[in-house]
Amino acid sequence: MTFKPLDKKDLNPDPTDQFASWFEEATQTKSICLPEAFCLSTTSPKGDPEGRMVLLKGFDSTGFVFYTNAHSAKGCSLKKEPRAALTFYWSELGKQIRIHGKTKRTSVDEADAYFATRPKESQIGAWASLQSEVLESRDILEKRFDEFSKKFEGQVVPRPPHWVGYCLVPHLFEFWQERPNRLHDRFCYQKIASGWTLTRLYP
Ligand SMILES: Cc1cc2nc3c(=O)[nH]c(=O)nc-3n(C[C@H](O)[C@H](O)[C@H](O)COP(=O)(O)O)c2cc1C
């Protein structure tokens, strides 16, 4: 498959707007089932690199928001080293986006509001899962799910205090467009005091 070239003049001077335009294209592409899925790369407290898929739940000029368990491996990593990287890849479009930045917790109100929109079973799942801890058997997890289902029967499920949002505030974006012969187009935005620089990189 050949894709349209990517030229500097095609790129929005604001990288968040550029992200919005590619994300919209990915969202409109029916064969992409999870356009909002990205690899979240962090550094463990021991200094090891680690990555896993997470879902993007919102973005604007202030940053990119995802939700997880603050007691999970990634939560512990982000507590010690808040710098992280997000990588999106949409093979159908031949597009990759990398975003580097520093994470901070979203407000409690924002996390409460988003948690309230989730299906009740997912809300109960958030209470039942001690994410990233050793689980001796699947039965234990299902038993915990049943116990929390009973506990919250007929009630609004409150957000577990450890179920939190993180907002990555970016200082670098890279937009990568697949091209023939591995001569791909790559552009990098870097934050400076007056805005963003935009440079082409060798593929
Ligand atoms: C497509 C996809 C989306 C996922 N989205 C999330 C998410 O939004 N939040 C989350 O905590 N885990 C999500 N996960 C699970 C994580 O990849 C991971 O297994 C989990 O968060 C534990 O990671 P950790 O032990 O590194 O903290 C997702 C997994 C996949 C495959």
Question: How would you summarize this macromolecular structure in one to three sentences?
Answer:
The protein is α+β, with helices and mostly antiparallel strands and 203 residues long. It is built from five helices and nine strands.
Outline the structure in words.
- The protein is α+β, with helices and mostly antiparallel strands and 203 residues long.
- It has a single domain (8-201), classed as Electron Transport, Fmn-binding Protein, Chain A (Pnp Oxidase, Chain A).
- 27% of the residues lie in helices and 36% in strands.
- It contains 5 helices and 9 strands, in the order αββββαββαααβββ.
- Strands 1, 2, 3, 4, 5, 6, 7, 8 and 9 form a 9-stranded antiparallel β-sheet that branches.
- Helix 4 (120-128) crosses helix 5.
- The site of flavin mononucleotide has 15 residues, from strand 2, strand 4 and helix 2.
Helices, strands, pairings?
Layout: H1 15-28, E1 37-43, E2 49-55, E3 58-60, E4 63-69, H2 73-80, E5 83-90, E6 95-105, H3 108-116, H4 120-128, H5 138-151, E7 163-177, E8 185-192, E9 195-201
Helix pairs in contact: 4-5
Bound molecules: flavin mononucleotide.
Number of helices: 5
User: Major sheet: size, sense and barrel closure?
Assistant: 9 strands, antiparallel
The end-to-end distance, rounded to whole angstroms, is 18 Å
Task: Write the CATH fold name.
Answer: Pnp Oxidase, Chain A
Based on DSSP secondary structure assignment, what is the total number of beta strands? 9
Measured as a percent range, the helix fraction is: 25-40%
- Average pLDDT metric: 98
Which cofactor or ligand species appear? flavin mononucleotide
Low-confidence stretches: none
What is the CATH superfamily classification? Electron Transport, Fmn-binding Protein, Chain A
Estimate the strand proportion. 35-45%
Secondary-structure arrangement, i.e. CATH architecture: Roll
Which structural class do the helices and strands define? alpha+beta
